Structure formats: structure tokens, C-alpha cells
Amino acid sequence: MEFSLIRANIVVLAKNHNPSIVSKEWLTKNKIIEEQVTNFTHLPVVSVINTNNFSLVVDQERLMLSVKKINSDNLKTLPQIILKYINQLPETSYTAIGFNYHYRVEIGQKKLKDVFLINDKKLIEIFSENYTFGGIITFHFNDFVVTLTFRPISNTEITGQFNFHFECNNRDEMTKKLLEHAETKKRAEELLGELFYV
User: Fold this and answer.
1) Could you list the residue range(s) of the whole structural domain that residue 15 is in?
2) What is the number of H-type helices and E-type strands within the chain?
3) CA 87 → CA 14, 32, 80, 132, 133, distances in Å?
4) Which residues have C-beta within 8 Å of that of residue 134, sequence separation ≥ 6?
5) pTM above 0.85, yes or no
6) Number of domains within the chain
7) For residue 125, what are the contacts with CB-CB under 8 A and spacing of at least 6?
8) What are the pLDDT digits (tens) for 95-127?
9) Nearest-angstrom CA–CA distance, 152 and 135
10) DSSP codes joined into one string, 71-114
């Protein structure tokens, strides 16, 4: 297929994360991140932890864990780290979780316009011949609300950015949703294939 995953992360929203807890020592002691920490910043309002493979940022409202090196092992480990984190802090009032995948898609603007039935003549009249096209689609998958955003990079490439969002205030529900991480990634790739390569 002519697309590749270039970015992946999980975001956990809460009424009040406590970034002052999230230190290098705390993460290591609780075996949340088991690889060597290469860089960290620990302040009362934000903690930033970097390893060779992951970047963790925790502020008072959100936690974001990003994969720095995209490979199957790191993608499998991503939800496991989040699961360990939320199990260590069950008293936190979690409110939502989001799985984000950004793909680089090799597709010409003509094909993109054909897929979305764009009236090219009308848009050339309005914007000029050199416009590029993107778009936003919102739909449901299982219990997730999914937002798919297409952004042009060039005349031959776009990014397809998926956000699988699930609102919950129950740690057990969030734990179950983490088990669907691989399924949501698979669905994102199926959708790109169905849209552009079938």
C-alpha cells in the first residue's frame, strides 16, 4: 500500500492529572516505562519524560504518550504503558481517551478530488489553479467518535490524521478501550485502503 504511519500517540484527559507525581523515579519504580530515560523535566505543572522510543508529557488536564520510533513493538507497548499508568493512579478522575494515528499517503490531488467528488472547475474559478485540497470526516467506530482529517503536503502527498475519541469517567471502561488500540489502528489502515486503493 502507498501509505505509512508517521506518528502515533495516546492522549488521556482527566479533571486533574497530578504532574508532580510523575517523576523519572516514580515511572521507573512502578515499571511504567522500563527503558532508560534520556531526558526529563519535572515541574509542579508539567512533567516531560523522554526515552529512545517514547515521549511522555503530563500536565494538569492531559497525558500524552507518543511513539518516537514507529515499529510494531513500540506500537504494541504504547497502550501497555498507559494501562500501567492508569492502574497506578486509580483515584484520578479520567474523562476521555484518544488514539491518534498520522499517515503519509501518496496520492495525487486528482485522485483525492475524485474520491470526494470535488467540483474542480468551480474551485479553480474561486481559488486559482494552484489550490490543494483536504477535508475532515467524522464517523463512529465501535464506541469511538472518529475524526479523520486530510491535509495536503504536496500535489502527490497528503496526511491522513485519525483521532479515535472515547469519553468515559470510569477507569475500567478506559482499560477495556486500551485493549482496542490495535483494532483501531487496523481500521484506520483499512479505511485508507478502501478510500484510495480499491
Assistant:
1) 3-196
2) 6, 9
3) 14, 10, 11, 45, 43
4) 149, 150, 151, 152, 158
5) yes
6) 1
7) none
8) 999 999 999 999 877 777 777 767 677 777 777
9) 9
10) SHHHHHHHHHHHHHHHHH-TTS-EEEEEEEEEEEEE--HHHHHH
